[in-house]
Specification:
single chain, alpha/beta, 4 domains, 16 helices, 16 strands, about 40% helix
Length: about 475
């Protein structure tokens, strides 16, 4: 897609030298494991960037160092957990990992599974340490919110919300940690927004955002921001200036006209904050499809080229990557995976023919049913289409036995449920299918399953009247 706009170009590399962070500890529950810790590239797209790897030896010991420029929310996803802590440049942490709890089979194949968020323990924390302060605050804040949400929402300011806010502010009045105080203040702002049923949201934005620094990696700041500006452009389209917004994006792609339009709102007078709102609006509009895809992309490119904030270039790039990822007409993500004999197969190996790529697990009932349907498709179309199923079975020998017993003859490859391949293809349910064109681009993303009449779509696509294209007379390699 490079021919469409400059935004997909490679960003200039900047050499950054942060301060060292030291991580160490012992956890026999995790011995022999490797945990990858990430940060969010930004909190609009939530694209992950690897920060460090925790290699745990056979005795449960781990010790690693990495560089960091600023306070960063870092996390790892393992077992049933989304485990996190706040890393500060120049600090050292003896981590206490949560008790090991692996996902069971129903969790692995549940597309709605939500990991348990847990703040990783740190040994010998002082009461003034950032992680201690946030753990302490979150306990009181979220406990109050969970127990009183309906009363706060229905009773508003006549509830005891003001008393709670006064008490919690008094409790932390002597804390001079700027990151924590910002965190506390934006959590309290979110509470006020609930209590007023969002009726005074613009005034709240003006008080907390318009003239304040943008805190890109503070979860409290960005959680409230994302809540307030969710689907912003889509809602804007229904207002009095909706037609103007539509024309600016659909016909002009002009970032200057877009900024001028939003500048009419008193709470969006701050140029940096206003541009962040534009990025959020564009990001959500891609998903909602009320605005055409290509004009959105061109408007995003205008932001990328015009912004004076490097972080906004990065966010724009991330939005473009997310929007183009797995889109029809883009290059299918490459992979290198072992087959049942241990031979490494690359997607590139199958160029020149259509590829019906499926992700499945022999333990799931739907996968088992559809294997029988693929078996029939394979016999009819193997001269024109390569059939590949990527299995995520932990028990590879059991999966291979299943393949043999059911006489499944197409290409089977193997990967892990947490692998880069699964992540690249955004697979959350099993089975999931894609149709890849002869040149390696995505033709259907996702593609219909065999149960959903894939054969009808495919037959129309490749032209069923071309004599000799189908059937057993032409065999794949």
């Amino acid at each position: 897609m490079k021919q469409f706009f400059a935004i997909l170009g490679i960003l200039m590399s900047v050499c950054v030298y942060g301060e060292n962070v030291h991580i160490f500890g012992n956890s026999k529950d995790y011995k022999g494991n490797e945990l990858i810790f990430y940060k969010y590239s930004d909190r609009i797209t939530f694209i992950k960037e690897q920060v460090f790897t925790l290699k745990i030896d056979k005795d449960g010991n781990f010790d690693t160092n990495f560089n960091l420029e600023e306070i960063t929310y870092v996390f790892a996803e393992f077992g049933v957990y989304h485990a996190y802590f706040y890393a500060e440049p120049g600090a050292y942490y003896e981590l206490i990992l949560p008790e090991y709890d692996e996902k069971d089979e129903k969790d692995i194949f549940n597309p709605f599974f939500s990991p348990e968020e847990v703040h990783i323990g740190i040994k010998d924390l002082k009461q003034t340490d950032l992680n201690y302060l946030i753990i302490d605050f979150d306990y009181y804040y979220f406990r109050y919110l969970d127990l009183n949400y309906l009363d706060i929402y229905s009773g508003g300011l006549s509830s005891d919300v003001d008393t709670f806010i006064n008490n919690i502010n008094f409790h932390y009045k002597d804390i001079d940690n700027q990151y924590f105080n910002d965190y506390k203040n934006y959590r309290i702002a979110a509470l006020k927004n609930i209590a007023t049923q969002k009726q005074y949201e613009k005034a709240l934005v003006y008080a907390y955002y318009t003239k304040s620094p943008v805190l890109y990696d503070n979860p409290a700041y960005m959680d409230l921001f994302n809540n307030i500006y969710a689907d912003y452009f889509d809602e804007y389209l229904t207002g009095k200036n909706g037609a103007t917004l539509y024309a600016i994006i659909n016909y002009g792609h002009s970032i200057n006209r877009l900024k001028k339009l939003l500048n009419q709102n008193f709470e969006l007078k701050g140029p940096q904050f206003r541009e962040l709102v534009i990025l959020k609006g564009l990001n959500d509009a891609f998903a909602n499809k009320n605005l055409p895809w290509l004009p959105l992309l061109l408007t995003l490119d205008s932001v990328y080229l015009a912004t004076k904030y490097p972080i906004h270039q990065k966010i724009a790039q991330n939005i473009a990557d997310n929007s183009l990822s797995m889109a029809r007409g883009t290059i299918a993500p490459p992979f290198e995976l072992p087959d049942s004999a241990g031979n490494i197969k690359e997607l590139y190996d199958f160029r020149g023919k259509y590829v019906y790529l499926g992700f499945a697990n022999t333990k799931t009932y739907t996968s088992q049913i559809e294997f029988g349907l693929i078996k029939n498709l394979y016999e009819r179309y193997r001269g024109t289409c390569i059939f590949i199923t990527v299995l995520t079975d932990e028990d590879k020998e059991g999966a291979m036995k299943f393949i043999r017993e059911n006489e499944l003859k197409w290409q089977f490859l193997f990967t892990d449920v947490n692998s880069k391949t699964i992540s690249s293809y955004n697979v959350v349910t099993y089975p999931t299918y894609f149709l890849i064109d002869t040149d390696g681009t995505l033709l259907m993303s996702p593609a219909p399953s065999p149960c959903d009449n894939f054969e009808t779509y495919f037959f129309k696509l490749v032209g069923g009247n071309n004599e000799g294209r189908f059937g057993n007379q032409i065999h794949d390699k």
